[in-house]
Each structure stands twice: as structure tokens, then as C-alpha cells.
Amino acid sequence: MTDKPFSQACENNKHPILAQLRRWLPEAGLVLEIGTGTGQHAVCFAEALPTLTWQPSDQPGAEAYCLPWLAEANRDNIRPPLALDVSASSWPVTAAAAVFSANTAHIMAWPEVEAMFRGVARLLVPASVFCLYGPFNVHGHFTSASNQAFDQYLRSQKASMGIRDIDDLTALASKVGMVLEQDIEMPANNRLLVWRRLDG
Ligand SMILES: C[S@@+](CC[C@H](N)C(=O)[O-])C[C@H]1O[C@@H](n2cnc3c(N)ncnc32)[C@H](O)[C@@H]1O
Hints:
Largest sheet: 6 strands, mixed
Structural class: alpha/beta
Bound molecules: S-adenosylmethionine
Radius of gyration: 16 Å
Number of domains: 1
Number of helices: 6
């Protein structure tokens, strides 16, 4: 048996996410992943998109969690994971061709979500994209009963967690020079939000 960390949701959702990333990520360059978690997404996407360089990261202390998956994959286009807390004043990456993050915005407190958008806007090269995957509300409404129950569960665990509304994220993005280019419905009541960094 394996001692790799495992997320069933990652297994279920990685191929639909990959199908979208093929449309939105550039041909080449460094993709920073924020909140990598187990590493299942990193390995799947780096294997399928070999001309990209994948940079996993997670909060200090959590960044090594993905190492068993990375070690097994043993790929040249996956860099060693970085310790990156989105709230840190300086990030260990200064430029990226794209940024990807899955299932993080509802775990982070809102000030951390704000910090994530500020930090992403700082390091994205103009016209590049930030692909943010997870459950989101649309115009103040839950998109499913299961998302509503999930939100209640999150808030009962920690008041600062909760499903974010796309309108709030859009307002936040506009403050840092990003626009919502595409809002894609995904399986299991999730969405992929594609934010584009404006020029200048
Ligand atoms: C629900 S897990 C998602 C993991 C993985 N992306 C996935 O889809 O399975 C949330 C992730 O966000 C990370 N995270 C939470 N707060 C963070 C912060 N302030 N900075 C960076 N990562 C953070 C956690 O450490 C965790 O890896």
C-alpha cells in the first residue's frame, strides 16, 4: 500500500480541470500553484503539460505534504515545493506565466484571499491568467444544496472560512488589475474562474 496523501476529490476532478487548463494555460513557462495540498493536481497537470514548469507551494509547514507524489512522479518539470503563505509580504516567486489554485479561497480567511489576489497580480506577467478552482457562489446564491451545507460546515469549523461569492472576488480583482475572463461550470458544483492580468 501507498503512504502518499490522498484526496478522492482530486482524483475525481483533476481530468475535467486539466481539460480546461489545456485551453487557458500558456504553452510554456512557470506555473505557480498556490495551496498544492497532496500534490495530485501538480503531478497530473505537469505530466499532461510537459512544456510547462510546475511550481508547487503551500503554507510553511505544509509544503512538504506533496513530496511523496512528487518523488514518485520524478519529473523534471516539477520544481521542489516552496513555502508560500499568501499573506507574507514577499513571496518566494517573483514572476509566473500563470497561477493555479484549487480549493483554497473558501479555506483562507477573506484577508488572505485579498492577499492572494494582490500577490498573484504582482507576479503575473501582463495578459497572463490566474485559474482559481473550487466552489463559489453566484450573485449571492449557493449553486447547490450541497455547497450550502458545505459552507455551513466550514463556518462551524472556523468562522473565517466559507464559500466566496464571485461578485466579491470580481471587485477584489478589479482593485489589483485583473478581470474575470471566464466562469466555467465544472462537475460536482465547482467552477473554474479564469482571471486575466490587465496590461500596465
Ligand atoms: C482544501 S486544501 C486544497 C488542497 C489542494 N489544492 C486540493 O485541491 O486538494 C486548502 C489548501 O490551502 C492551503 N492554504 C490555506 N491557507 C493558505 C495560505 N494562507 N497560504 C497558502 N496556502 C494556504 C492549505 O495549506 C491547503 O493546502
